[in-house]
Amino acid sequence: MTQVIYDATYEGWLTAVFDIYELKLTDVVFAKKEPSSALLFSTDYFVVTDLSKAERVLSGLQKRLSNDGLARIYSTFLSEVSQAEEIMFGFVKYVFSSTQNIEEDFGSHEVWEVRKAAKMTRRESHRMKAFVRFKLTKDGLYYAVIEPDCDVLPLIENHFKNRYADQRWLIYDVKRKYGIYYDLENVTTVELQFNADTNSSKFLAEICDQKEEFFQNLWVQYFNNVNIESRKNMKLHLQHMPKRYWKNLTEKTANLKRILNNH
Known about the structure:
The chain has 263 residues and is α/β, with parallel strands linked by helices. It has helices at 10-23, 51-62, 67-79, 84-97, 109-131, 153-163, 201-207, 212-226, 234-240, 250-253, 256-262; strands spanning 2-6, 28-32, 43-46, 135-136, 142-146, 169-173, 178-182, 187-190. It comes from Flavobacterium reichenbachii.
C-alpha cells in the first residue's frame, strides 16, 4: 500500500493523481500534509504540488466530462466526507478507463458516491447563502461567522462579491479557521484566530458599530412579528433551518434557549 501525502489543496490532489499514473502506483490511500499513523506498513509518497501537472489532469477530465461532472469532483473535495480523496480517485480512474461519458452510470459505485458528496456540498452552499448574517464593526467592516458541514467558502465567494459589491466584508469559517475578505475590489483568503463570543453584548460593545446592537434587536423583533404562531410548523422549520446553524443567526440567538427548551 502506498500512502500519498499532499498539501490539502485541490491542485495538490490533482498533482497526486498525475504522479500516481506516472509512477504506476497501486493500492493508494491519501493523507493531508502528514502521514497517517494508522497505517504502519505503508510506503509513503510525498507530493510536490505542480500546477502544470494539475492542469494536465484537469485538461484530460475536461475532454471526458461535462462542466457539471467537473464541478462534482471539486464539490466532493470540498465535502470533507470520509475518504473523499479515495472516492474522487475511484471516479477519475473510471473516467479515464472508459471511452464514453460515465456521468449517468448510476449503477457505478464511484459515480453514485461522487454525486452524493457533491449534492451535500451544493446543499450546504445554498444554505450558507441564506444563513449568513453580517454584523457591522466600528471601522466599517461587515463580518459574519459560519460553521458549515462542508468547506463552502470557495463556492459562495462570487455570490457575496456580487451581492455586496459596495461594502467591505469578511466571512469567517470557525470550523476551518479561515475566511474570505472583500476589500471593494478583490476577494482574498485570510487566516486568523476568531474565538470571541460574537453574540455577547460585551463583544458587540468592543468592536461593533454603536448602532449594531440596535439593528440586531430590530431584526429579532421583525422576525418575531412575522412569525405567525398559528401557522408554525416546527418540523418543516427544522428541515429548512437545522438547529446547528442557529447560534450564528441573529434572529435565533436571542430566543435560542427558550426555543430549545420548548422543543
